What we know:
A four-stranded antiparallel sheet has the order 2-1-4-3, with no helix packed on it. The protein is built from four helices and four strands, in the order E-E-H-H-H-H-E-E. The chain is globular, with a radius of gyration of 15 Å. By secondary structure, it is an alpha+beta fold. The chain has one domain (2-82). Strand 1 and strand 2 form a beta hairpin. It starts with a strand and ends with a strand.
Amino acid sequence: MRVHIKSGKIRFVIPCPIAFLKFGLSIAGSSFIQKYIPDKDKRYVNMIDFKKLSKCMDILKEYRGLKLVEVKSRDGSHVTIIV
C-alpha cells in the first residue's frame, strides 16, 4: 500500500506494507491502547472488529493498484491511497 501526498511543491510517497497495517490493527484492538483513547471516542473504536478488519487486509492484497482514496482540495493538495 502506498500513500501519495502532494501539497504545493512538496510531494511525499509513503510505502506501508500490508503486514505493518495488520500489526497496527492488532495493537489498536489491545486493552493497552484502549486506555489512552478519550472516553468520548471509545464508543466509536469499540464498534470496530479489528480481527475482521485484519482479514480484509489479506483480501486487499489481491487488488494491487486499486485506488482506495483520492482527495483533491481547492488549494491544490492531493492525497491518494493505492493498494
